[in-house]
Design brief:
The structure holds 2 protein chains of 2 kinds. By secondary structure, chain A is mainly β. Chain A is built from no helices and 11 strands. In chain A, the strands form 2 sheets. In chain A, strands 2, 4, 5, 6, 9, 10 and 11 form a 7-stranded mixed sheet that branches. Chain A has a 4-stranded antiparallel sheet with strand order 1-3-8-7, with no helix packed on it. The N and C termini of chain A lie far apart (about 35 Å). In chain B, the strands form 2 sheets. In chain B, strands 2, 4, 5, 9, 10 and 11 form a 6-stranded mixed sheet that branches. Chain B has a 5-stranded antiparallel sheet with strand order 1-3-8-7-6, with no helix packed on it. Classes of the chains: A mainly beta, B mainly beta. At the A-B interface, strand 4, strand 5 and strand 10 of A face strand 4, strand 5, strand 9 and strand 10 of B.
């Protein structure tokens, strides 16, 4: 149980275009979803937290107009990287939780590797 | 702001040895602490989750302890195997955020 999928697993796009990444909880309802980013040789950094039906909360330094997050249902959240640039190339990982507080375990997706050329 | 530190940054040991990975965090007001492994180019595999009220968790050859008051956790790996080679990440929830704050990881190599 507690399976989270991401699509696509990898994507290459040209500078200036937009890319959408999907995160789905397959066998449970995810009240809260989180998006993390991992640059090469570095650890994961939280980008934003989203609750179903609400606007996402972005971490300091993350541009909300560049990284659009939509959590329209209890099983799906999307991250859209708008006007992507090479510096946005990274490994993006989502996680999903059944609750809204930090007591609830987060279940991670397999990640999406984005390369912007 | 919560900060998580992992020591050592890298470790290489012969197969069969028992080893300890260390994790410390600056804000003890955490909900839980989690250990993950990450293989090169891959996502995260959750190893152990310790709730703030717990002292330790065990799974197979892995044992994780939590001393919340001192802001420390250790991951003990018994009888290490080459398949244990990976980067091990420690992460906490709390200290002002519901998302996980990750350490930079310990890159572990088990020599056959």
């Amino acid at each position: 149980g507690a399976v989270v999928s991401q699509h696509p697993s990898w994507v290459i796009c040209k500078s200036g275009t937009s890319v959408k990444i999907e995160c789905r909880s397959l066998d449970f309802q995810a009240t809260t979803m989180f998006w993390y980013r991992q640059f090469p040789k570095q650890s994961l950094m939280l980008m934003a937290t989203s609750n179903e039906g609400s606007k996402a909360t972005y971490e300091q330094g993350v541009e909300k107009d560049k990284f659009l997050i939509n959590h329209a249902s209890l099983t799906l959240s999307t991250l859209t990287v708008t006007s992507a640039h090479p510096e946005d190339s990274s490994f993006y990982i989502c996680s999903a939780s059944t609750g809204t507080s930090g007591y609830y375990e987060q279940y991670f997706g397999p990640g999406t590797r984005l390369t912007v050329t | 702001k919560q900060e998580v530190t992992q020591i050592p940054a890298a470790l290489s040991v012969p197969e069969g040895e028992n080893l300890v990975l260390n994790c410390s965090f600056t804000d003890s007001a955490i909900y839980n602490l989690q250990w993950f492994r990450q293989d090169p180019g891959k996502g995260l595999t959750s190893l152990l989750l310790i709730q703030s009220s717990q002292r330790e968790q065990t799974s197979g050859r892995l044992n994780a302890s939590l001393d919340k008051s001192s802001g420390r956790s250790t991951l003990y790996i018994a009888a290490s195997q080459p398949g244990d080679s990976a980067t091990y990440l420690c992460a906490v929830v709390g200290g002002g955020a519901d998302g996980l704050t990750f350490g930079k990881g310990t890159h572990l190599i088990i020599q056959p």
